[in-house]
Amino acid sequence: MRYAETGFNLEIDLSRGSIEREATDQKLTELYLGGLGTNAKILWDRVPPEVEPFSPENLLIFGTGLLTGTPAPGANRTIISTISPQTGLMAYSMMGGFFAPELKYAGYDKIIFRGKSPKLVYIWINNDKVEIRDASHLRGKGAIETAELIKKELKEPNAQVAAIGLAGENRVFTASIEQGRSSSSRLGVGAVMGDKGIKAVVVRGTKDINLARPAEFLQHCNEVLQYIKLRADNPVPGVMTILQGLGSPQEMLHVDEKWHTENFSWGNARTRRKEFWNKEIEDRWKSVQEQARTRLVSCYNCPMKCGAIISLPGISTYMMKCFSKLTYTMAAMVDDLDFGFRIAQRATEYGVDGFSTPQIMAFAFELREAGILTEEDFAGCPADNEGKFYWLLDKIVRREGIGDVLANGVYAAARKIGKGAEAFDHNTIKKHEQLPLKLGMLNPVYFLMYATGEKINITQIEGQFPQAPFPTMEERENFVKDWIQVPDEKFKKYLLDWEVRGDHSNPTYPTAEISADIVDWQEKMHYIDDALGVCAGLSSFPLKPPYHIHNYPLIISSATGIDMDETKLTQIYNRNRNLIRAINVRRGLRRVDEKPPEDHWRKRFPELEQNLLDKYYRFKGWDNDGIPTKKTLQDLDMATVAEDLEQRGIIKNG
Amino acid sequence: MAKVKKVIKTIKIDVDKCNGCRACEVICSAFHANPKYSSNNPARSRIRMVRDPIRDVYLPVYAGEYTKAECAGRDKYVLDGKEYTECDFCRASCPSRDFFKEPDSGLPIKCDMCEDNEPGEKPLCVQWCLNNALTYEEREEEVEEGEKPGDVETGLESMINKYGLEKIKDTVERLAHK
User: Fold this and answer.
1) Is B129 in the same domain as B176?
2) Res. A242 pLDDT band, cuts 50 70 90
3) CB–CB of A297 and B40 under 8 A?
4) Residue A254 — very low, low, confident or very high, per pLDDT cuts 50/70/90?
5) B113 and B62, same structural domain?
């Protein structure tokens, strides 16, 4: 018997209209865990680098994590993997919500789509019965609207629906897949779904998930819940409000936005408004948010309330989380939060990424001001900031006029438009739009995570290591006192030694070697979470989370029956990390691409940055160009990956 | 008859505090698995969320008695501007819906307040509801002391329901004279 997982994948070929239920090999679980890891294995094996994102040969994988659907709190993530139309690399995109557990209860660990449907369809998975159904009546419908219509049509109020909106149908590179209160929005996974002709995936499952050593597993789950309670009562002192607790930043709960509005950049990641937040704005924004927010809500089996139901007069209800309330507001230079909530509703129905899309629009209006785009390109566009954004959003998701070129994202649009537009593309890395954050001093750990992360999406140090040093030794000592999450005591010393000023401060401390070490820990937790389907908000993202490297092996082994310890789990992380790197280097990713935007920090340190990359690559067992060496891959039982890279001339001289 | 004190176990459901995570369904189905916690499946849970996020409907409902026929009630309630059907509040395991039935056998299930749990422990759904939408309360009530119907009586009652009193009487009489 298989534990925690079902042992079956659903293979759906949309060109042929065939549906198969395939048993999987448990050996792969032992090597890659599941979720992100096994998704990557499938992409490596079955999608060679010649395959274009919009080719029928590209796969679109909806993967559940290994622990998804078990009682492990917060294990609800769907990991969506494909080749990104925007970057040409592996799309590392995920969502919470309720979809993945339902898929497990229906009896599948993954759905693997290949081919293209000749007409728009939706997939209806009801336990063993799987159908490809006509969706022509849903063409052009909003993502949430589609979910509601399908549930009604099937008379299945408890089905879970992952759908695309108009943006996905039109293959907009920032198209998302929307589901429940969550969306998989980064790197254009919705565009690939639209290209395959899938409007929605609908699932209902009523089967059991089995656990290998139930009593032991439940004891660990209870400990996790107890720790969540403990953390709720003990916010981390000395850091800003949204970093004090667990979960995704509690943007729906908190109304104080002084920090974001004054430290993040407005417009096309351009303008800092240091005096923005005042009493009048605070009162107004507080009342807007409290009126818009009907209820704080959670993903499946998680006590954190990171999302909210948003209901405003005149528009239909939707759900929001995290930072999206500010992205449109700030990109459009609008001082009223009401606009942010209203345009996000339309954007959610269209199904677009709330990080990239506002930036594309702000970029376009900058080009217009600079005379690079013409008034002709904006014929019919209203003059006010709010109207402008609604107008351009419509153009982009319909790929009409100037919207067509912009729908491919800032990087591609800048190069297509030319005439100096490239200079306005100042906030992307690896062709992907980043958070509008422009900072003063370079933090070496953050630099490395930004430069080398395969997720191509980071806000700050996303991890259990603080984003900034504590000013006093007393605060540091207090922080490390109950820091049970560290993999090794040396990490406490790194933090104790980290000063605000002087020799032991940014950018020279943490040193390159120490930075590589810290980054490795942060990455490790993300990769393990994403293979298990556990939300980063309870593990790799916040300070002092309930899941960590010491309890994960116990949780995994009691759930699955697979022997697990910290060494073995670290080995699996390294395998997954290197496999995804191998997929991307096979698609052309090199050191030259690992470069945060020029103006990301006010002052840059070219030599120091190169040294950081050198040391990080060496730590990983990669060559100077960021390519895993043959030995590194062989040591991780991936000799065939090494052979492939060698045959292609990517690994040279062993 | 004499009055006696009886402890009534109750769960207070504060729907305003519910965050809709369904942890109650997860842990209920795990607790009642055999062996305990060996599997989980919200479709077997004895508490179910009537859940419609877009309408802000979040209603945890506990499984009650089995009923063999649908009732006539199809009334609607409007509370705070939100529409509910009568069924949304109903605890019955009923032919009109798939709630509160084992998904494979169709056998009815019923909340037992986790009676197999260690003495003094709260029901698992309450323990796992960190947002306190579900809280456990015990209250004492004075009730008339009465004979508890034995197994024979309960069994006979269901036979009478099925075959009618006359037929059962006849049968018992005939068997007594054998």
Assistant:
1) no
2) confident
3) no
4) confident
5) yes
- Here the tokens at position B29 are 């189905």
Residues B156 and B78 in one domain: no
Q: Return the bridge partners of A307, or none.
A: A297, A321
Complex confidence, ipTM: 0.95
Q: Give me A520's structure tokens.
A: 């490795």
Query: How many Å lie between the alpha carbon of A180 and the closest alpha carbon of chain B?
Result: 8
SS3 of residue A64 by DSSP:
strand
Indicate whether B142 and B86 sit together in one domain: yes
Stretch A172-194: mean pLDDT? 95
Output b/e per residue, B79-100; b: 16+ Cβ within 10 A.
eeeeebeebeebbbbbeeebbb
Q: Which two tokens stand for residue A563?
A: 């022997």
Residue B66 burial class via C-beta count within 10 angstroms: exposed 0-12, middle 13-18, buried 19 and up = middle
Q: Are strands A8-13 and A110-114 parallel, antiparallel or unpaired?
A: parallel
Which among B39, B51, B130 has CB closest to A209?
Answer: B39
Q: Is B51 exposed, middle or buried (0-12, 13-18, 19+ CB in 10 A)?
A: middle
Degrees (nearest 5) of the Cα angle A144, A145, A148?
90
pLDDT of residue A546: 98
**A339-363 per-position pLDDT tens digit:** 999 999 999 999 999 999 999 999 9
| List of chain B residues whose C-beta atoms are within 8 Å of the C-beta of residue A210 | 38-39
CB pairs < 8 Å spanning A and B: 94
Report yes or no: B56 at the A interface, CB cutoff 8 Å: yes
Domains, in order of start, for chain A? 8-204 (3.60.9.10), 246-415 (1.10.569.10), 444-629 (1.10.599.10)
A607: confidence class by pLDDT, cuts 50, 70, 90: very high
C-beta separation of A590 from A624 below 8 A: no
Q: Which long-range contacts (CB under 8 A, 24 or more apart) does A258-265 make?
A: A258/A282, A260/A323, A260/A326, A260/A330, A261/A326, A261/A330, A263/A437, A264/A326, A264/A330, A264/A435, A264/A436, A264/A437, A265/A330, A265/A436, A265/A437, A265/A438
Domains identified in chain B, total number: 2
- Cα–Cα nearest to A454, from A357, A509, A543, A519: A519
Q: Give the residue ranges of DSSP H helices in chain B.
A: 23-31, 124-128, 151-163, 165-176
Q: What is the pLDDT of residue A397?
A: 98
Nearest to B134 by CA among B40, B37, B9, B42: B9
Collect all residues of chain B within an 8 Å Cβ-Cβ radius of residue A73: 23
pTM over 0.90: yes
> Are A319 and B39 in contact (CB < 8 Å)?
no
Do A211 and B37 lie within an 8 Å CB cutoff?
A: yes
Residues B117 and B166 in one domain: no
Higher pLDDT among residues B106 and A577, named by residue: A577
Whether A208 sits inside 8 A of B33 (CB atoms) is yes
Please give the residue of chain B at the shortest CA–CA distance from A232: B130
- Assign A251 a pLDDT band (cuts: 50, 70, 90): confident
Claim to verify: residue B100 and residue B17 sit in the same structural domain: yes
- What pLDDT score does A459 carry? 81
Q: Contact A115/A16 with Cβ under 8 angstroms?
A: yes
Q: From the candidates A295, A316, A320, which should be mutated to test the interface with B, based on the most B CB atoms within 10 A?
A: A295
DSSP state of A206: -
Q: Which domain holds residue B56?
A: 3-146
Which among B19, B26, B30 has the least Cβ separation from residue A298? B19
Do B103 and B159 reside in the same domain of the chain? no
Read off the amino acid at residue B157: E
Report residue A283 as tokens.
């009162």
A298 has a chain B CB within 8 A of its CB: yes
CB contact under 8 Å between B23 and A294, yes or no, is: no
B132 touches chain A (CB under 8 A): no
